[in-house]
Amino acid sequence: MTEIRTVTTLRSKRAEIISTIAQYEKPIAQARADLSHVNACIALFEVSAEPGAVPPYVDTHRLFARGDLMKLCKESLTCGPKTTKELALHVMAAKGAPRHRDNVLAHAMAMRLIHALRQQWRRGLIEGDGKVKGARLWALSTPEDGVSRFRQL
């Protein structure tokens, strides 16, 4: 049985429209991805100084003034040796960040502390007294003459 010429023409027109729609959808998908990236950048630059307004993926370097992080750590270490996690929770509490609800921020803070504490350890300003459950235990360094090398907190 032969098809009617109108049906054949309509089917070819349908195929043409489908391919045109597919061609339009590719730039629309790219535009949506671009919009998503621009929105993420806006969210990063709109972060206020309030600790509660900080999303968990924000750069933690902007939260502290120069020397502020180590000052908070040394204040905490005056009570005795502490693990990196305990120091991170102390720093977060001092900055007013949520302690127990935000594991992402706590992990990012611990990673930032590890680097800063290792630098202080290499300089001989603090001691790494072994590990407790896989976490390094940090303590204030006491020189042989009994005089502290730390600046006043």
How would you briefly describe this protein structure?
The protein has 2 domains: 1-46; 52-140, Orthogonal Bundle (Arc Repressor Mutant, subunit A), CATH 1.10.10. Strands 1-3-2 form a 3-stranded antiparallel β-sheet. The chain has 153 residues and is mainly alpha-helical.
Q: What key attributes describe this structure?
A:
10% strand; Arc Repressor Mutant, subunit A; 2 domains; 153 residues; three-stranded antiparallel β-sheet
Ranges where pLDDT stays below 50 over 5 or more residues in a row are: 145-153
Tell me, what's the shape? rod-shaped
**β-strand amount:** 5-15%
Integer tally of domains: 2
CATH topology (fold) name of the largest domain: Arc Repressor Mutant, subunit A
> How many helical stretches?
4
Please report the total strand number as a whole number.
3
Largest sheet: 3 strands, antiparallel
SSE series? HHEHHEE
Separation of termini? Answer: 95 Å
Task: Evaluate the radius of gyration.
Answer: 29 Å
Mean pLDDT across all residues, rounded? Answer: 79
Helix content: 40-55%
Strands side by side in the biggest sheet: 1-3-2
CATH class of the largest domain: Mainly Alpha
Helix-strand makeup class? mainly alpha
- CATH architecture name of the largest domain: Orthogonal Bundle
